[in-house]
Design a protein that fits this description.
It is a single chain. This protein has 324 residues and is mostly helical. The chain has 2 domains: 34-71, no CATH class; 87-323, Orthogonal Bundle (MetI-like fold), CATH 1.10.3720.10. Helices cover 73% and strands 0% of the residues. The chain contains 13 helices and no strands. It has helices spanning 15-71, 87-94, 96-127, 133-141, 148-158, 164-171, 186-210, 215-223, 228-239, 241-257, 260-266, 278-288, 292-323. The longest helix has 57 residues, at 15-71. The protein is flat and about 100 Å long. The N and C termini lie far apart (103 Å).
Length: 324
Amino acid sequence: MPIGEVQPSVRPARVGRTDGAAGAATRRGVARSRRGRGMRSERLAPYVLLAPAVLIIVLLRLYPLLLGVNFSFTGDGERNGVAVGLDNYLELLRDPLFRTALGNVGLLVLLLPVAVAIPGLLATFIYLRVPGHRLYRSVYFFPAVLSPVIVGAIFNLLLAFDGPVNAVLGSVGVGAVDWLGDPDVAMFVVVGVHVWATFGMGLVVFLAGFATLDSALLDAARVDGASLPQVIWHVIVPGLSRTIQFVFVTTMIGMLTSMFGLLYVMTSGGPEGSTYLPEYYIWIQQGQMNRPALASAASTVLFVIMLVVGLLQIKLLKRAAREV
């Protein structure tokens, strides 16, 4: 290098700082990647948890339901497996026993508010701690653990023409009533026995609903001088609207699908077919008449009835809760 020439200065590279910046960027990228995977996992977690339940419902509920509906459009006997269109449904409409069963369904829908009001009022009294409320809670629930066969046998003895109930009526000058042999009375008796045997479950649900009720509202109503009917109508009913909807729907389903044991033991569908319900009619067609396709059609009609009535009940109850 010539003597007068100035050598250019070379600035050393800052290796450590560059490596540190690159490392920080890498760590930020890894963190973002992990957060992305975590967010995806959180989004997928509900679907993974619900998948077994959905699979069970599809395989054990929806698929058999679709098979039953499809089977209802086929024939019985010599026409077994042959598509018959709406013949089974038309035969149901022509069958007086099935028409009686549908009429009894209408009766159950009319009596449903009573079946819900009984456990609701009893749960209200227990919640307000009437004397002996702990004893009442266990006593009211006890019938719910009894088999329908046992309940039916007990009431067959009590309601026999020469049984204890008619003996008590005779002692006060009232004539004996054929509780299970009179076509105009038998269905009301069976429904009453069913309500007695099952209202304990509704009672438990109402008590669980009361646990979510704001007690400050009740205290405010008492301070304002509200009577018990006013407290029930303006405080308890709006506060338990969701619970009431649930009890209405479950009670309706129970009345339409869980009375077979009582019907079989107490009346066997009699007298004169006056206590037929769709579930009993289905059993007769499937088990005794060997007509599974007709029974499938009746099952489909029962499912549609429960679906329509349940949706209408929920809609009416929501509207009533807004108006209260």
